[in-house]
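SEVERITY: medium
COMPONENT: batch folding queue
REPORTER: lab tech (J.R.)

DESCRIPTION
The queue accepted two submissions in a row. Attaching both inputs and their returned structure tokens so the on-call engineer can compare them side by side.

ATTACHMENT 1
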Amino acid sequence: MTQLETAPASGASGSRWAAEDVGNIISLEHVNTTIPDQAPATVFYILGMGFTRDPHMNVGLNNMWVNVGEQQFHLPTRGTQLIPGHVGIVMPDLDALTGRLRSVQDQLAQTRFGFSVEDDHVAVTSPWGNRFRCYEPDSRFGDVRLGIPYVELETRPGAAAGIARFYKQVLRAPAALQDNGQGAAAQVPIGTYQWLAFRETDDHIPPYDGHHIAVYIADFSGPYDRLKARDLIMADVANHQFRFKEIVEPDSGAQLHTLEHEVRSLFHPMHRREMVNRNAEQSTGAYVRGHDALIPFGP
């Protein structure tokens, strides 16, 4: 896959400044998949991938929040949930990443863990089968050095156009249908340098298992009212957020895809919460004073 194939959709208006427009979905904050065991999760996400366990929230054995720049993975301890597709990750140094991944191979040998170096990314599979594509910083990700710019989900043939209409009409995101030779996809821009993609595939898509994403939106009441009118709210407003999971054709109501969205207003107390990120290259044998933290953006 080339770099252009994961780039967010541009503005839909005819203005020369359309690329400066931002839709109603301001940011993607976390991706949630349950896991059965936190020990291999620690080996994979912290030692192998080099991320940081949140030191303030969910520090016990029933859940793990993993900081990735200004985003997170939430990993409650239950059964295994798998995202049909992959999560895009920006990392400052792919050579350092592959070195860490090699160092944990033996510890994860009895799992589904694996990785490969591709043309423009490192493809990584978690101990339970979730897939990631790790990229070095690039202009399509803004000034991000560490973060989660996108989630790409597999969806059934013929669904992408309706999914784009759903996000455009119901969530007021400037979604568009794209086809780059890898299959039609609904591209949903989020804020400045994040996006969702729903790519059509003929491959088998397993039944939805409860994984979810969390997003912040500026116009909270509009999407809520439109979803409520279609009887799509699965958890009503509490603590400045609501939830829905069914993505439907806006006019007919035909079901297109299932993905739980934790939708937060900008009044949510965790909006713009500062994340702690460590420099995974620090070690006792090669310690550099003053370099314990990693700044997830900038030059």
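ATTACHMENT 2
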Amino acid sequence: MAKLFFRYSTMNAGKSIDLLRCNHNYLENNKKTLCFTSAKDNRYGEGKITSRIGISIDAILIHDNTNIYSIVKKESDISCVFIDEVQFLNKEQIFQLSDIVDELDIPVICYGLRSDYMLNAFESSKYLMAIADNLEEIKTICFECKSKKAIINSKILNGKILTEGEQVQIGGNETYKPLCRKCYKKLLNEN
């Protein structure tokens, strides 16, 4: 029985490398997969899922109007669908993913962020938290104290934590730091 998975974490926790590893396991066992990524994240080129350690694969781009269900339905013998940067999808696309699971009986494994740097849930992450069959946290440690689990994506500019602005700004280690709640509060109070 197929399931909808949401594997979430903060920035820099290894979501993309986990996706690449899982996809590779399917391919090594002669299973066909489809990999998708948001068109909004083009840090490593369009239509690429790339880990920070340099491994990448080609992926189908998801735009705001992309019907993921229709794309998957046209294919045959798909064993699993992988979604990278799922936080950039919209509500309708999240329900398309659930239809892939429920109607086509194909597992869907989504990777993304639970919340933004302002501590607001991304729309798609909110719906995935509500309807996914399995929620799995990919853990990383706090950039500041190096001992606690990071749960907050902090956006830092000139040493100060930002708490307002555009929800989506594509960036990596130069912009975002994973922090535990205690370090986040401490740094926020220092602002």
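NOTES FROM REPORTER
The first helix runs from residue 15 to 28.
No errors were logged for either attachment.
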